[in-house]
Every structure is written in C-alpha cells, then in structure tokens.
Specification:
MoeA_linker/N_sf, single chain, transferase, molybdopterin molybdotransferase activity, 6-stranded mixed beta sheet, Molybdopterin biosynthesis moea protein, domain 2, disordered N terminus, binds molybdate ion, alpha/beta, 485 residues, 24% strand, binds ligand LQZAQKY5, Molybdopterin molybdenumtransferase, Molybdopterin biosynthesis moeA protein, domain 3, disordered C terminus, molybdenum cofactor biosynthesis, Molybdenum Cofactor Biosythetic Enzyme, Chain A
Length: 485
Amino acid sequence: MTNRDPRGGDALDREFDEALALAKDPASQGRTAQDSASQDPAQRPGWSSGAPGAPGAPGASGASGAPGPRGPHRHRPATPWPDARAIAARAPRKSRPSPTTATLDGTPVARPLPEALGHVLAAPLTALTDLPSFDTSAMDGWALAGPGPWRLPAADQSVLAGHAEADPLPDGHAIRIATGARVPPGATAVLRTEHGAATGGWLYAAPAHPVSPGQDIRPRGQECRSGDLLLPAGAVITPVILGLAAAAGYDELPTMARPRVEILVLGDELLRQGLPHDGRIRDALGPMLAPWLRALGAEPLATRRLADDAEALYAAVAESPADVVLTTGGTAAGPVDHVHPTLRRLDAELLVDGVAVRPGHPMLLARLAPHKHLVGLPGNPLAAVSGLLTLAEPLLRTLTGRPAPAPCPAPLAAAVHGHPRDTRLVPVVFREDEAFPLRFNGPAMLRGVAVADGLAVIPPGGAERGTDVEVLDLPWSTAWPGPQE
Ligand SMILES: Nc1nc2c(c(=O)[nH]1)N[C@H]1C(S)=C(S)[C@@H](COP(=O)(O)OP(=O)(O)OC[C@H]3O[C@@H](n4cnc5c(N)ncnc54)[C@H](O)[C@@H]3O)O[C@H]1N2
Ligand code: MOO
C-alpha cells in the first residue's frame, strides 16, 4: 500500500492498532457502542488517511529524537517479534559471570522443602532411597505364607504401619496386617479383609478370590531404586514435586537463585485507590506485575510508583539492587517519556528497541551492567502484557534456568485480522481444542486477557479460521466463559 500520509508509518500504525481493537472479529457476538462507532479497518478504503485527534508527530517508535544510548539517533527498524524473544532469552548468557554480582551465577541455593515451592530445580532429582523402601502391604487384611487355609495366632495380633518388623511368618500361617505395614519375612501374599473369613483360629480365602503369589504386596523398589532419576534439572517445583522429593528422602532441594526484579510504575496520572477522576486513572499494572513475575520464577523486590520525573527515574534505575528492573510507561516519545533518556544517561546497551508486535511495539530491553537488565514495558496495559510475554518471560526463563516451553499450536476458531507488517498477540480461550479469539483486545484493555487461556500469535497479514497458530500460555486460566459468549 502506498503511504501518502505525511505523519509517517508510526502514526498510521497506532490508528491501525486502535481500529483492530474495535474490529468485530468473526468469533464475537453482540456489539458494543464502541463497535458500532467503528468499521473494520481492513475493509474500509482509505481508513489510514487520518483520524481526528490522532497524534501528528512522525518519528521512530520508542525514540525521542535525541542521540541514542549508543551512537547517534537513527530510526531503528523494530525487531521482528520472534527475534526479540530470542534476543531476550540469550541476553543473560551473553553476560560474563562476575564474582562480584548477584547470586545468578548458577550456584544452587539449598532450600528447605516448604520454601522450595515455585523455584526451579538446579540439579536432577535422584531418589535417595528405594520406593517403597520395604515390601509393603497394599491392603488391610492378612499377610499369609503359602497355600491356605492358614493358621492364625492365638492372640489377636496385627502388623501395623510404622511398627517394628514382625517375626517371620511360617508356611501355612497368617497374621492381620494394615495397609502400609512391612510385610513379615516369609509372607507370600496379602488377602484383603473383604476376601477372607477368620473362624476357629483359621483363615479361609473366599472361593471367588483365590490367592495368587505376591498379590497386594508392593515390592521394595517398585516405584524407583535409589539413584534413579526422578526429574531433570530445570523443573519448576510444584506441590506434587515437594511430595515426591519428601517421599524420596529429601529435606531440602537444590534450587536456582531467583532473579530479583524491581518494578517501577511510571506516571503522574496513576491513582492507587478509588475511582478515576480529573483525568487520572487507576494503576492497573502495579497490582498485576509482582504476582505475574513470581509465576515466572522471579523474586519481586518492590513495586515503586514514580512520578513522571526524569531524575527520580534515573536514581531509581541506577540504584536498584535488582537483577532485572521492569519499568511501565514512558517508553514512547512524549514529553514525559523518560525511559530512553535515562538509558542514555546510564550508557545502557539497548538490546531491543521496539518490536514489530501489536500491541506493545515500543517495548524495549537494555543491558545496564553485565548482570543487570531493564525491560521497558509500554504503559497501555495490554501492551505491557505483550512486553511481559515477549521480553520479560524469555529473559526470566534463562535467568531461572527453565527450558523453553514446547510450542503449543491450536487451530483458530475464527479468522483474525492481522497487522500488515507486525505480529499481533490476541487473547484467546480454548474450547474443544480450538482457540477462540476474544474481543476487548485493544492496547489499553485488560478485559479480554483477563478471561483468556493464552495469547495467540497472529502473523503479519492475519490468519484464517482453522489456521494453526502458536498460543503463548498464561500461568493460569479461568473457567469463566468470558465476553465472547
Ligand atoms: N509519538 C508516539 N506516541 C506514541 C507511540 C509512538 O510510537 N509514538 N506509541 C504509542 C503506543 S503503541 C503506546 S503502547 C504508548 C506507550 O506509551 P508509554 O510506554 O510511553 O506509556 P505512557 O505514555 O506512560 O502511557 C500510555 C497509556 O497507558 C496508560 N498507563 C500508563 N501506565 C499505566 C498503568 N500503570 N495502569 C494503567 N494505565 C497506564 C497511560 O495513562 C496512557 O494512557 O504510547 C503511544 N504513543
Ligand atoms: O498500541 Mo501500543 O501497541 O503498544 O499500545
């Protein structure tokens, strides 16, 4: 398409984003007042030729026009979305280990089991014992030796779980036993309580339940032998893994150090409580980011709210003790967008300066020091989510030593409009193995992603119904059907 708009590509792109957000994807039902006011931009001739009130400033996304952090300013082309993720994943590996910094040098941190949840295993988990560690009764009943009937002890004796090992059982004898108890030496099987009858000092098996050798005995080492590999390094420690580790003899686990992340939420307009008023809005990112980062394996240190003040931002970034500083807002080219100037002052190395993705294209990644990175998320809330998944997730994945998740493609249940050049990330829900695109996917909206199972990766140009697209997982999902239904 010939672009005759004197405002340049970025201004047009912003209109495109807003229009895409309001476009009624085929999966949507019902219309909002907003929908009615818009037309599908891809169908509207001349849609990009200007909208009242659209910003008129030409210029590079995420650049202020001043000299760049390294070298003179130039209009850097946005990094393609897959490349941006790869750069973020590689960024920590390119930093040489430094003895003076951080715990992120790969040295495992031993954590007691109750504190290990959510951390990443720094070494393979091998069994410290056989499991079960002794021949165990799988049922309440009788341990017996040889073919029946079996003589029972004169006194009412039982072999109980956790008690001393019982005396050897002679052939033709039986003794009551509890589930989990050590099977006495010489026992050849266990007969369940409901399958036997004890009478006159003898035990008889019910005719319908003849005894076979070894029945209802869990032999030592059935699940694993001491030294067996139970889990590879890199596994995220779940509640079940805590249980398995305890069963296998562990009191503590070797874990990767968590990268420490400081969150800096920028914006004079942001309120921490109450209703929006006088042009001010609630901070939607502060409450969301710390728990999200925790789910990505990081240790959020603090969430600080900063006014749009260049000095305050410079001091906060320069003095941050974190391994990763995460800023929100201030990435674009407005009069109070201080992230780029701050990075220049700090002589930071910009690894990614704008990504060819919608929403979120002004996102950036910078190296502040060999072991200190900054992820700049755009202020629009869904754009910030996009930056979190595009740059923060791969960076933290490498820093926490986790493997890349297996790609998770799903067929689209409806066609999705694309950006002409950029990747789009669109909230979707899974229904019967199909990904349904959700409405309310505009850069400033969280309503769609709040009920999404993931974000579908829509290639430039869009995707037809039935096309397999990659879906980025969210670390949770919701059963609420959501506004698409
Ligand atoms: N001249 C240009 N203007 C803009 C560009 C551009 O390339 N050139 N990009 C647009 C895009 S796309 C986005 S996204 C935003 C990114 O802006 P910033 O990262 O500088 O963020 P702000 O301007 O501070 O805020 C943008 C928007 O988001 C709201 N916001 C900010 N923080 C929060 C928060 N914590 N919770 C809720 N909402 C928040 C803020 O009020 C603004 O409405 O720039 C475009 N402009
Ligand atoms: O439109 Mo902006 O893509 O990043 O919100």
